[in-house]
Structure formats: structure tokens, C-alpha cells
């Protein structure tokens, strides 16, 4: 067991749950010791309960783990949650009350005032909210909830972060072309996907418009003051397996030249890179110069799926600049986001009380 | 021959050329009597020269027509041109000089000051430019050039036309998801299309940004005064066979309510509908209320491929309104556009001199 | 009501049910007056209950029809059934007992000894089984059950029929590449379809192997004597919306030349063509000579979706001949098959007692 | 340079050429020192000449290599050739005459009597033909030609090899569903691939039928005596990026039970596994028991793209057994095949004279 932190995965049989299992197979700090999912799967081994949809085989370690009910106690030190949003808040709070750190990819708690909506490169100072949770919530010591944003929001917020920091952002128009895996499994029917585009993803436009402003907001005392620029999102599902693409126009608060903007994006690094977190990509943003990049099939795995690739950066006739950004929606946009959050929490001492409890 | 106008098609073996042949097979006013294409095809029958890519068989009448060189004279009364833009201007002007009306889908002459860039429902008054051509060009009597816009521009300009007329438009942001057939044949390599999006179509963003302003411009004396709003286009190729989709945000010159905007779109009809032109759809714009429409596979053939379907119309957080619009790119966006142009020209007496010449 | 036969559709909201509604909208003999589906849909209008997945709009006539429970009585004279196979037999027999002719696309009753498994061009003499039903079943007068085969079997049996009749068939190896719509809606998950092939369709290989032999069997007294050749089927789901393709090798009972075989296929017509049944294609089998046909996108709609297109006919190194055959799986392979069956039954006097009952 | 063998790649800018560059980036024995391609690319750097179509970036080492003409001398010790078949024979023989070992993926020389058509696991004893080349050809010392089979043939021959060895094979019927990358780049037009199947790949059926018999033939004195069973191939292009799938029926020379057959396949290993060749998979054939495997997206990368995955093994009604087999067409079916061939040649002393020459 070698001193690794024992983790449990809620929603383990779903698309994102499978990514957690895959990404944690050889993780240096975390070891999966508990898998939980809905009633239908309970009591089965993971191999029986899970229709593995990722390339390659289900990792050997997970095959014989029994799927348990998603309620405490579970034989683990912290929780990764990828539960469907309905019902997720109650379950996640129950785990936090029982003293588990909950690192959630679910949308349920993202917009709660005292819950950090965390992208380690962007707003690690929002972790101050954990102190608010400690004092105002009835969570047992060590228990808390940290969330990561919606898959498209992560992509957008990462691309905007250095622009917002350096020039200020006053308006954003984003149009997404999102991959099928974002809808989970079975998700989108093939008859709807083939030779088609669906200009609708339930709740997605609202999530992007609200989450982005919280993420780019400032930590002020006990609260996050949301960023104040206006933002418009139109979302489309396209016939791509993995890799969300976003066409972005941005109006800056102060004028900037194309070279400054390119440099702000390309040179962006942050705390996870300084701390050399295991899942952190060397460069969060890769700026490509070819006229026809990024493309999902060619660029989604950049930085092991954790880098956002930006291309077609140029001045815009209506706003100041426009560009296209792409990232892997189930890695940087979901499982990898949560794992990076957990790595940051570990590196910043937020799991200090874990060992005491589990000893 | 029954009094039909005899037409010749330049670029007859290409994707759009094939649509011309298909759409004109049973046309009440036009009869295809000449097919022309590049050197490689010359002298072959159309059946030999053309790799027919549309569903169904190559129309019987066209099979044994000999493919000729694209230069006058051709045994026809008017010319439909879908030549590649390189070289198209010289060829089209040569035909006009020889007295042929040239109805062109090629991009070569679209932005010339004295050439109408025509969408019959939108700017039929731009046909006044034909008088400019008559006086300033050395075209033989009856010869002139009329063009239709780029496939994505048509879609956008049709959707904007009633808003521009009723409320004024002050800014437009459009993001397109365009079909593979827009690139012709062989066009996009399947390895680039499968499980992928390409965020680049050469020249497309510029065409949309410039052509839209010309189309929505006002005819003033001998010239068209381009519309003055700002417009930003980002274009993507997606894995769809036919049907371009555009996500649009629009800022209006004067404030308007959602119902007014919906009504302006849904009630839009124009001269082609009054004249009951053969290829004119009953309703140029169909406004759907379902949250997930329009979709290429379901809506591209609306109005026999000549209607634009609009959905997801709603207020926008950055601009005033947003919506998604879709149309069939090789019908309303190309061959059908040119044929409708020709029908308007016929109905408005612009082919008056044809019979004299061909008698 | 104009003397049309009133028809009810069981399973009306499914993929095949929608095709029935679409194909019957303007049918000269049948008029849809009843729509039935499972509990969830009951009481809703068809427009509310049905997520229409076919191109174009839901036909106006059907929008306000109330969806009823699939049990007699229904306000119609005959029943088209596209119920899921589980439970279909009981429901269909209940309707037959109540005196309704049941024309079923469901698999439930296909292999029953006294139920015709009918392809009008192939085995119309199997309708003699209806007399067996009349004497041995407790169906009310006018009530009976006729089925059509599985979508892939129809394709294969149609292609084999003239070979079997003229030369005898002694062995068949068939490998199918089947379209997504064959699995219904939502059916195959898009993540399984995109950039993929699934080499498995539950029960399909067995259905092809058994149904084909029954269809090509001889009517002998009260029974059908199944054909006796051996047959092997391997089935694959491919990323195609509509159109099943089958790669076929066939060993004939007596030797034949390539020209004889081609002629047997290309010249094949049968009773539906003689009777000029409304849905019967002019030619059941179209033999194409191009090396790369048939293709689903180009050939599935041949003969309004009712013709089978055959290509790549050539001698085979292991068996005698090989070819590729294609047809539209939800038209010739399902709804169209049942409608053609009903047209044959009408033309051959099997609905004689209808008017009496409904008067 | 660390004692690695210096290799040159002919056809370096093509789909297979790019795979060579990718697979050889970190190879322990080979180092790419020369890239050659057709006239258009000559003199450019590889980064300029090559439109890199594989996921990830073009390997750094290759970017600045100059593309040279495909003729000797080249600054390397051995040649990997993925030239188009037209003209390949002359070029490859020219290199062999100049003393280069030529490891070719091109089809040009495969069926020549004195050229090994090599799959290391299957017919390594065919390397005896190199002695025939040495004595009968005017190749300089060290020069020879070894080929690997067509991408589909490799898959089939690997699956048949243990059955042929243990039970004898008397007839084979194979139907392929082949990936787009097999046609190179740009290869198949996206309009032909989307929502479609193409039942034709030029020359493919003939190659499978002839190459398989040569590969499974016996080395007899100076010649290979082709295997004598009959074989029938039907080939289809499907909308899959990578991964060829083959539906196989096989008749054995002596009767065998299902368990024996499964065991023969699953336990198959050969010389490359004994020699622990770098690119050799641990298990050449993986037999899966799930009813719906193998699938291209899930199984093509098994064994780093070098294992063939077999599923749906069962008795057949016409032949003895049937199964579905899948492998990665540009790895095991092309670049990986050639590299494994080279590794075998290295391990068996066939490059002994290299160092002398290049010293």
C-alpha cells in the first residue's frame, strides 16, 4: 500500500468514472480502494458492473473490486465524485459530514457560495472557501467539498485566465463544438450523431455563462466576487468521440496587440507547474500557428490530455480578438481536472488530517 | 423543345454542377442543352466524364450529352457557371461578351462593383447594376453577369434580411459548422473528417464578412452602398454531408422584443414568393420552437432544400439576440440559388433578348 | 374517408412505426386511423408521444391522433404491427382473435408453422397457410397473422429467389454490414458507432439462417417445407444511418454461367409487379456494373427504397458466385415490406370480410 | 550515434511513411537518418514536405531532415520502403543492387519468386529465399529485398497460421471491413466515407487471395510452394480511421473441436516472441470472449498495435468455424510489419555485412 492515499470513486461505472480508474491506475499518490455506483451495480465486481468503453482493457486492479453503494463509510481516505447531478449534492455532503474530502466533477455543488470551483492554474486562492466550509458547515474534521467546472467551462476559463489577468476581459462570445463523450454513455443516440449536428446541450450554455464568472472572480474575505464581464455561449454537439472545441471572441478591458495576447497565452504557467504536480501539463496552453489547428483528433491528447490547444488567434472585426481552443473533455474537462485538484490539495496540506482518521 | 430556355452548365462535372443537372431535369422553364468542363472531360459523354455522387442515377437526358470546352459558343441561351474561382472571371466575361446571360455560383465576380450579388428574396433591386454593365462593359446585347453569394453567406444574409429591414443591424457574430459537400469532390479527405472538426475553410470567413455587407447594401444610383455594421465570422468544417449551420448573435440598431424578432423572421416573404417562382420556397425562413432544432440531417431538405430553418432564437447576454440557422449548402447555397436567380431574371424580363439571338 | 381501408399501427412511435406513418400518408388504399404504443405514450397525441426522427415534419394528419393502448378494439380495419418482439405474439394473436388481419414486422410469430413469412415477390403461395390459421386457430372471421422477415433476411432472400428458382442453391455464406436505424431509437450509442464497427447484432445471425430457409421453402399441403441448403451469416453494425449491405457467396445446385446468373437477377419480376401493387418497385433487383456499387448513401433509395441493388457480381474462388446486395432496411426491410404484404393481401381478396365487420 | 543501424525511409511523407517515423523515434536498434520521397518534396525539410496526420507532433528529430530523392546512395544502412506500387520495384531493386537491404511495405515485389513475403511469426523460414537472391540477382553484397504482405493479408495469415499448422486449412472465406487510413492520404473522399460503405478496394481481393497462399506455403529447396487451399475475399471500405476487421470462415483439413481451435489461436507464439524482438507483441493473437468484440476503436491498439484480436469464434453452418479478427492496419499491417521484419533480420544475422559497408 506504500503510503498512498486511498481513494474512492462515486459514479465509477460511468464515462468519467472509467477515466478516473484509467488515470489512477499508476498514480504515484493515489490508490483506488473503493468503487461506488447506483443500486443496479451494487455487489457486482467492477468487471461485471462496468461496460468498459475506453480503448484497451479494464485495469487489472479494478476488475475484482466490489461496487458499493455511494454512502459512507467507504474504505478510502478521499472521494472522487462523478455522480449524475440529480442527488449528487446530498451524497457529497453526506461524505463531507463524515469527514471525507470530496473532490467532485458533478455539477450539483459548483455554484454554492462556500464551495471552490477550482482550476488549479486559474484560481487556487479560492481554496480559502474551505475555511468557510469548516466554520459554517457541520462537516467532520477533514471533510470538505471541492468541485471542478463543466468540461467546456474549463477549456474557456483556462484560455481566458491569462488575458483576464493581464488585460482584463470585458465581454466574451463563445460557440462550442462538443464531443459525444461529454454526454456520457449511452448518451447521444448514433442516429442523432451520424451526418448531423445537434445545436443543444441541456443546461450547458447556462453553466458556461455562470461558472466562468465565478472561476475568474476574486476571493474577497469569505466570498468569491464573480467577474463582471458579459458572456454569451452557444453549444453544439458534433460527431466527434473526444475533444471539445470552442470558437471564442473576446473584448479586452484595455487595448493590447496581437503579439502581447499571443505571448500572454503561450507563456502562461501557474502554481501546478511550479509545484510539478503529477497530472499538471508542462504548458497549460499551447498556441499553434498552423491555419487549420487545433483539431480534435490531432490535438485532444496534447499534454496527456491536460493541455488546451489554441489556434487561429487573430484580431476580430467585432470584438478585439478571436481564437479557437480545444481540450480533452473527459481528461482536462473531467477526471483529470478532479485529479489535478486533488494533487493541489495534497501539495498544499489540505489532506493533513487524513492519516489520523484512517489510522 | 417546347419553348424552354436552353441552358449550358460550366463546371458541369463538379459537386455543384451535378446539382444543377439534377435540379434542372424537370424544370418547367429551363432545359439543359450544353455541359462544359475542364480539358480532362472534354469530348467524353457526361456519363463518362462525371463521377455522379448524388443519390439516385444520373438523369437519363444528360448521360449522352458531350462535355464541351467552357468557351463560347455553346448551344444554349444562358449559362449557369460553377467554375472554380481561379480563371472563372475571364471565362464568364467571355460568355457575357458573346451575349450570354451568365448566372454564376463562382466567387470570382461577386465583389465586382457592377455585378449583382443576388438573393432574390433580399436584394432584387440590385439588378439595376445590369444597366451599369450594359453601358460600361463591352458585353454583346443580352450578355451580363449575375452572381449568387457563398453558401454560408446566403444562409446568413437571408436570416438577417428581415431584421435589417425592420430593426436595423448594428453588429453580427457568426460561427459556422459547414458540411463536407461545400468543399466539392474529392474535397475534404475522410481521414480529416472522421472523428474530427477542422476550424478552417480557406477564404470563407473573409467572404462572409464582405459579401453579407454588399448583399444587405442599398442600391444608390449606379452603385451599391454596402451595409455598415461590423461582422465577425469563424468557420468550421464538420463531419456532415450536406447542410451548413450557423450560430448567430445579432445586435440591432433599435430595440426590439423577442416576439417582434420571431415574427419578422417567420413572416418574411418577398418577391420570389409573390411571383411564385418555381424554385422559391413557400417560406424562405422557417422558425422552429423545439429546443434541439435545426439539425442538418432533419432540416436541410426543408422547402425542397430552399428554406432556411431557424431555431434556438432567444435573447443574448452580450448582443441582443441569438439563434441558429441552417440551410442546404448545395441547393439554397449554390445550384438552387443560381436557378432561383435565373427564374427571377426570367420573370422580370431580363431574358427578353434571348429568343432573338437564338432564333 | 373515401373507401380506404382504415389501418392501425402498433408500436407507432418507434423507428419503424414512424416509417409506417410516413409511407401511409398518401397511400391510395390505406388510411391510418389508429396509433398504438406502450403505456408511456398512451393518451398523448402522436405529436406529443413521438420524437419524430425522420427528415421532414411529422405528417399533419397524425399529429393530433391520440396514442392508444395496443389492444382491441381499435378504430381500424387492419393492423400493422412493429411491436418489440417480447410480448408481440400475445398482442398480435389477441387482435387476430378479435377478427383483425395483423400484418406484422415483429419477429415474434415469424417462425410459427402456420404463419406466412411473406415476401410478395418470393413466396406468395405461402399465403395458403392462412387457411390453416382459419381452421386451427380460434381467430374470429377475417382475423389472421402475416409476417415479413427480418430486414437483412429480406435483402438476402430477394437476391437468392431467382437463383434458387432457376438453378437451385446448395450453400450460402453471407456477411452483413448493417445500418444504425436497424437497431431502432435510441438504439446504438454514438460512442459505439463513431470510428467503429460492432461485430454483433443480437439474434441476427440466427434469424437470417432460419428465416431464409423458411421463405425459400415450398408450400406442401398444410405446411411449408423449408429449403435445405446450408447457410452461414456473420453480422456487423457499421456507421451508416440507413441501408443494409450484404456480401454474399452462393453455391448453386446446377452449374450456371455468369451471364445466366446476371440475367436471372436482372430480369426478376413477380406477382407484385404484375399486379402493379402501389409499393412494388418496377424492378425488385437492380444489377449495377460499376465496380464500386452498391453504396448505402447512393443506392438505398433506389425504387423508392423498395429495390435491392446488386453489384460486384462475379465468379468466386470457393463457391460459384459472389456479389454485394443492398437495400433500405426500414423501407424494403420493414415498413415497406409490411405495406407491400398488405397490398398483396388486398389484391388477392384476403380482406374480403373487412367491410362486413366494420360496417 | 551509439551503434544504431541507420535507416532510410522511402515514401516518407505518406501515411505509412509517417508511421515509420513515429515508430522509429525511440527504437533501440534503428535510427532514421534519411528520408526520401517523390520530386515534389525533394529538398524541403520533412517539416515542410510532410502534412503530419498522426496525433501529436511530428517528432523533433525528423523536422529538419531534408527530404531526398529515392535513389541510392542515401546516408543510411538499410531501407524501409513504403513507395506507391507503381515504380517501386525498379527503385527497390536499384537500392538492393547498391548493397542496401530493402525492407519493403510496397506491393511491387511481394509475389516475385525469390522475394520473401514475410510475417516473422508465420514463415520466417522463407528467408531462405535471400540465398536465392544472392546467387541469382546482381545485388551488391548485403543487398536484398524482403517484403511484408498487404495490411489485410497480414491479419488473415496471422489468424490462419496456427490453424494451418495444427489442423490444415482446406478453404477460407474472408470478408473485410477496412479502415480509411489503408487508402493513404488524402485517400478516400469524405463524401464517399460519411454515412456510407464502399464495397470495393482496387486490387485488394486479389492480393488477399494470392498473398495468403504464398505466406502459408512451404519453403522447398529454392522455392516457396504455395499453400493449396481455396480462398475467397470480398473487401469493403468502412468509415473507420484505423483498424481492419475481417469476418472469416474456415474449413479445416482435419476435424477439430472448438476448444482445440481456440487453444491453437490463443496459445500461438513464435520466433519473434522467443527472440523478444522489440516490436513483437507478447501474444500475436488475443482471443476475446465478449460477444461484441473485437471493435476497431477499442482493440486496434492491442499489443501496441501489433496484436491481432480475435472474437466471435464459433462453429459455422457452412464451413467448420467462423470468427472475426482485427488489427491495426498501419502498425501491424504496414510500418510495424516492416520494422518487425527488420528486427528479425537483425536478430538472425542478415545485417552482418552492414557495418563493413558503412564503416
Short note summarizing the structure:
The structure is a homotetramer. In chain A, about 30% of the residues lie in helices and about 20% in strands.
Task: Give the CATH level 1 class of the largest domain in chain A.
Answer: Alpha Beta
This entry's quaternary arrangement is: homotetramer
Largest sheet: number of strands, sense, barrel closure of chain A: 6 strands, parallel
State the shape of chain A: globular
Number of separate strands of chain A: 14
- Mean of pLDDT of chain A: 95
Give the helix proportion of chain A (percent range): 25-40%
Identify the CATH architecture of the largest domain in chain A.
2-Layer Sandwich
Order of helices and strands of chain A: EHEHHEEHEHHEHEHHEEEEHHEHEEHH
Q: Classify the secondary structure makeup of chain A into a structural class.
A: alpha/beta
Strand share of the residues of chain A? 15-25%
Rg of Cα set of chain A: 20 Å
Report the total helices of chain A.
14
Cα separation of the termini of chain A: 13 Å
CATH-assigned fold name of the largest domain in chain A: Dihydrodipicolinate Reductase, domain 2
